[in-house]
């Protein structure tokens, strides 16, 4: 499941530059990917919605992709939102999490996965190419700037445009961290949950009700999505499978597996991971997954 980045210092983030725009990418050549965004709303009376998933994606799994489909179905049948796009935003190398492949590799895998399996999901490299760690609140500010300031929202016809609601898409473990005192700054919580909002996908073993009880002031901006078919795949488990030379077929997109093997990722000795066409027998129980599994 996708993991979210809290501010490591625990202090409130400086969410905007003095000019009022998000921090820009380091280096030249960045441009916001817009080719898969809807250009006009199908049902103008609805509220346009953009889904953003922040995380490590090391590597990306089918559950990362399924989260977007579940969120789109939920929005369609349970809300007055119209989904106009979805983005994965991989964290930069500055996050320094165990098991984190380089941003170059994680971006490549995410792009391979979305390009070959989806017609509406995209990957934004802005966060990944930053030299410094970017808290989730700033990343959402970046999307808000690109969509609602630069692009001026979305067309609703007759020359009119409407602002797009940006929401964070994440697993239920995010809500647990947000409801735990001291993990997130109050300013970041208010910025993320108050200004934007979050779509939360249920996760096995997470008590959402207890977590939500501590976040009542933002409950109107939190939407909980039930997993009708339970899926507990995580990047942590995938990395463990690869290190043990176990099959990850049908857990990770096949082109991503080919990329992992070609570049020797997630193998302790640096050699190419052995990923065979034939499934191997289980080699023992998995270790407990950490709360940040993306």
Helix content: 25-40%
Biggest sheet, in brief?
Answer: 6 strands, parallel
- How far from one another are the termini? 5 Å
Number of strands: 8
Biggest sheet, spatial arrangement of strands: 3-2-1-6-7-8
Average per-residue pLDDT, rounded, comes to 84
Low-pLDDT residue intervals, each spanning 5 or more residues: 1-23, 269-293
Q: Kindly name the structural category.
A: alpha/beta
Cα radius of gyration in angstroms: 19 Å
Give the percentage of residues in beta strands: 5-15%
Helix-strand topology string? EHEHEHEEEHHEHEHH
Number of alpha- plus pi-helical segments: 8
Shape: globular
Per-chain topology:
Blueprint: E1 47-55, H1 62-78, E2 81-90, H2 103-117, E3 121-123, H3 136-150, E4 154-157, E5 160-162, E6 165-171, H4 172-178, H5 186-196, E7 198-201, H6 208-213, E8 222-225, H7 235-243, H8 254-263
Parallel strand pairs: 1-2, 1-6, 2-3, 6-7, 7-8
Antiparallel strand pairs: 4-5
Can you describe this structure?
The chain is an alpha/beta fold. It has 8 helices and 8 strands; from the N terminus they run βαβαβαβββααβαβαα. The chain has helices spanning 62-78, 103-117, 136-150, 172-178, 186-196, 208-213, 235-243, 254-263; strands at residues 47-55, 81-90, 121-123, 154-157, 160-162, 165-171, 198-201, 222-225. The strands form 2 sheets. A 6-stranded parallel sheet has the order 3-2-1-6-7-8, sandwiched between helices. The longest helix is centred in the first third of the chain and has 17 residues, at 62-78.
């Amino acid at each position: 499941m996708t993991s979210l980045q809290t501010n490591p210092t625990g202090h409130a983030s400086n969410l905007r530059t003095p000019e009022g725009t998000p921090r820009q990418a380091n280096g030249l050549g960045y441009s916001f990917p817009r080719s898969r965004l809807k250009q006009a709303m199908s049902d103008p009376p609805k509220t346009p919605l953009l889904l953003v998933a922040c995380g490590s994606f090391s590597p990306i799994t089918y559950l990362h992709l399924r989260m977007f489909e579940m969120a789109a179905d939920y929005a369609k049948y349970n809300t007055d939102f119209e989904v106009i796009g979805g983005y994965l935003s991989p964290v930069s190398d500055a996050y320094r999490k165990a098991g984190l492949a380089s941003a170059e590799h994680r971006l490549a895998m995410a792009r391979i996965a979305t390009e070959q399996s989806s017609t509406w999901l995209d990957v934004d490299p802005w966060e990944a190419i930053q030299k410094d760690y970017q808290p989730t609140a700033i990343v959402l500010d970046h999307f808000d700037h690109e969509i609602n300031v630069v692009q001026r929202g979305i067309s609703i016809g007759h020359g009119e445009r409407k602002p797009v609601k940006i929401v964070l898409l994440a697993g239920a473990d995010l809500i647990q961290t947000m409801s735990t005192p001291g993990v997130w700054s109050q300013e970041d919580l208010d910025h993320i949950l108050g200004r934007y909002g979050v779509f939360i996908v249920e996760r096995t073993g997470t008590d959402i009700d207890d977590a939500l009880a501590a976040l009542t002031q933002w409950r109107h901006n939190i939407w909980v999505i039930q997993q009708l078919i339970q899926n507990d795949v995580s990047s942590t488990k995938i990395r463990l499978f690869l290190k043990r030379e176990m099959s990850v077929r049908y857990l990770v997109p096949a082109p991503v597996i080919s990329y992992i093997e070609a570049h020797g990722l997630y193998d302790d000795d640096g050699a190419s991971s052995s990923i065979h066409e034939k499934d191997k027998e289980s080699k023992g129980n998995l270790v407990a997954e950490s709360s940040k599994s993306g």
